[in-house]
Amino acid sequence: MTTRLIRAENLLWAVPILFGLIANYAAYSDVAILFLDENYYILNFPTMIGVLLLSVLVPFMMHSVLRDLGQRSFFASWAHVFFTCLLISTIFLIYTYALPISLKWKYYMGELPAYKKWNYYNSLAIGIYELLIYIQVAYVIYGISVLVRHRYEQKKQEKAHYDYIIEHLDQSRTNAIA
Fold first, then answer.
1. Among 1, 83, 88, 151, whose Cα sits 20 to 30 Å from the Cα of 97?
2. In a domain, 123, yes or no
3. 156 within domain boundaries
4. Are β-strands 39-44 and 31-36 bridged in parallel, bridged antiparallel, or unpaired?
5. Using an 8 Å Cβ cutoff, are 45 and 34 in contact?
6. CB 150 within 8 A of CB 71
7. The domain containing residue 24 runs over which residues?
8. pLDDT by residue (tens digit) across 135-174?
9. What are phi and psi of 5, to 5 degrees?
């Protein structure tokens, strides 16, 4: 095994796949029903895995770039990986244990306890997914700021190097003439 395979950022794609497959076999239903903006969305678990993998694609690449440049912060990287994996596993856990409902229950007179419980879990899962997206955006912004700072320092060093070379070339020319 290479060290490229044994990296923390690999958990960003391994956890959604692993927990998604477990949820696919352990869930009460074959699909997850989301109620968002007065619309119902029915997603199967492989689709949810794909959506979550797309959500962590850019931060995964940012981890790799920062590691390759040697600019990776151990704390920031592990905190991002830990909280991302925690939120992804929580989303799949919610949809694993959420009981199936009838879409017509929303329109019944009064509130059915099963629908009320499902609606709470639905709101919780959507909130957790929003938090997951915020964490991904925050890590990408952090990564871009580290890259910009790294490039600025690199340019500053290059300028100092070129100034040093030009200064020594000028001194050698003036010494040779005199």
1. 83
2. yes
3. no
4. antiparallel
5. no
6. yes
7. 8-143
8. 999 999 999 999 999 888 888 888 887 777 777 776 665 6
9. -80, -25
Please give the tally of structural domains in the chain.
Answer: 1
Nearest 5°: CA angle at 20, between 17 and 21?
85
89-143 residue pLDDT tens: 999 998 888 777 766 666 666 677 777 888 888 889 999 999 999 999 999 999 9
With respect to residue 81, please indicate whether it lies within any of the assigned structural domains.
yes
Give the tokens for residue 5: 């395979």
Q: Exposed, middle or buried: residue 152 (CB in 10 Å: 0-12, 13-18, 19+)?
A: exposed
106 located within any domain: yes
Helix (H, G, I), strand (E, B) or coil at 105: helix
Q: Are the C-beta atoms of 128 and 87 separated by less than 8 Å?
A: yes
Alpha-carbon distance values, 53 to 15, 16, 171, 177 (Å)? 9, 7, 58, 67
| Structure-block tokens of residue 33 | 């029903």
Q: In sequence order, which ranges of the chain are alpha helices (DSSP H)?
A: 11-26, 45-55, 57-69, 74-97, 113-177
Give Cα 28 distance to the centre of its chain: 27
